[in-house]
Write a structure and sequence with these properties.
87% helix, 120 residues, mainly alpha
């Protein structure tokens, strides 16, 4: 289960129950607690890091998070790269992200457009 569908479902249910206003309230309701938690815990993190045990724990959480993201990236790549064209788009997008100031907000729709236009 990933958070994306949960957030989308909350907005949808809010819309079904209360129209546009319900969607806005549900969206704010599902995102606000996380933002509040980050805002409130932000000043505490430097103090927690001073503890060798807590700092080591946070380092482990960071490494585990990166490992999970790498695993999901590999799984998505296996599912998405199905031919030479998708491989070229993936390599070009990765190169643009790593070596230029290209924005993912432009690369995603550009990749989608290329997927529609290139021969199959």
């Amino acid at each position: 289960m990933t958070p994306g569908p949960v957030f989308t479902t909350a907005t949808f249910v809010g819309y079904v129950l209360g129209g546009f206003r319900g969607a806005v309230v549900a969206t704010i309701g599902i995102f606000l607690p996380a933002f509040a938690f980050v805002a409130l815990s932000g000043p505490l993190v430097p103090r927690i890091r001073r503890s060798s045990v807590a700092g080591a724990f946070l380092d482990g959480v960071n490494v585990a998070s990166i490992a999970l993201m790498a695993l999901v990236t590999a799984q998505l790549a296996r599912a998405a790269i199905v031919d030479a064209w998708t491989a070229v788009i993936a390599v070009a997008s990765t190169a643009l992200l790593l070596f230029s100031r290209a924005s993912p907000a432009w690369l995603v729709p550009a990749g989608g457009l290329l997927g529609l236009l290139l021969p199959r």
